[in-house]
């Protein structure tokens, strides 16, 4: 037996099928003569057999009722084998909204034809382009400009702007200014109005992470059309040189320290070729062991601890964290100092007196020289040293340069930071750049770079900068620094004692602390001092000693007066 209708998926229905459309209610009239549902089920398409499979064992009437329900879902359509005299009317479709919608779509669709054996005709008419305007965010039109003294070939170092909320980090190199030939400019373009931080970025030779030197916080961009005779941020490259006769040479070894606002901002090692390699000083400072407590000491004042009676030369004991760590005897002035403690408080007990232990606060001890805090230079060697001259429109008057033949320890760095004016050389003479845009008549420390003889060390580098308008820095050879050799007295000398050279007339002083000076095999300390200004011819030798161990106070003792500088040169 055969069916007098067929079934298709609704999405396969075409306009030409409308004359064959059979409503779900009429489908049983097209399926007659079947006694078993299984016989009818076998004649249906697979996509219709699946939902009706559970009813295959039911009677035919029940099976046909389930078939109508499936057709009413609108996903399947029944078509008769012969066309109707007229298509299904709108009124007939009112009970089948899903099918009615599909029929309405097909009635408005174009009639499709079978493809003939010829190529279809194409319309080659060129139509006007339909251009749609899409607005684009305008590029920011602000900039930050950093000025460099002189014009010279690029090197590995560059400038970097920090990342902002809207923009990424930016990098810029110094380029020669065509309009003003005494300078170079590093320009950061396309910036929004948000303030940015400025850094010097020095790449490293054996690690991917560069050395980052902070220059300024919150630099405000200006309009891209702004031009200035001198910009608000100026860096000056300097080339340190040693005077040798009438010529200058580069130092072949040693370390330079740029001290800026009482902080060692930059540590630079002299490379074998005379270039300057940066040390990542911030990394080494941050890498100090946090698990080891810094040593502390206590200043005991017996007169305040036991005010009722005299306890000079009285034995005492120190307890730290409940454990006895020291025993000794007070001096005749009722004082004592004890070092190498670690806690912020200790208990002082007097075993021969009938009094309770007294709690005394400790103070942080100075670090000793030596200590094994060697730092390796990892920055790519550079031909000169950039120093800050003007930042945010303000001339940096507290900028110094210090040279040491050996690397300073971390404790020595702290000494340098505490009083750079007495140990390092001021770079205040750089102010001549604003006055004359050159260094031809700068002064005694900042000098122009003159041509060096071919046989002098670093002559090629020096001669490459003679026409560059960068600053020369006149060094004092370490072998010619004022020096005092002193026999160390362990029983009386304290780590925070120091020697000093002083000239009252010219308001100059240079200090050398005991804690930063090593003792040689013979027990002597060699104290070196900064070279005095040219006008200083004689100095007083000062010794700082502790006059009262109980309070830690020092007094200054003038050991010699009006000593000629020439007598102190080693």
Overall description:
The chain is α+β, with helices and mostly antiparallel strands and 570 residues long. The chain has 4 domains: 103 residues, no CATH class; 248 residues, no CATH class; 69 residues; 88 residues. It is 14% helix and 34% strand. It is built from 12 helices and 35 strands. The strands form 8 sheets. Strands 4, 7, 8, 11, 12, 13, 24, 25, 28 and 29 form a 10-stranded mixed beta sheet that branches. It has a 5-stranded antiparallel beta sheet with strand order 16-15-14-26-27. It is elongated and about 135 Å long. About 2% of the residues have low confidence.
What is the number of beta strands? 35
- Proportion of strand residues: 25-35%
Instruction: State the low-pLDDT regions, or none.
Output: 288-292, 368-372
Number of helices: 12
Our measurement of the CA-to-CA distance between the termini, rounded to an integer number of angstroms, reads 127 Å
* Rg on CA atoms, Å: 46 Å
Mean pLDDT: 85
The biggest sheet amounts to:
10 strands, mixed
Q: What's the shape?
A: elongated
What count of structural domains?
4
- Class derived from helix and strand content: alpha+beta
Residue share in helix: 10-25%
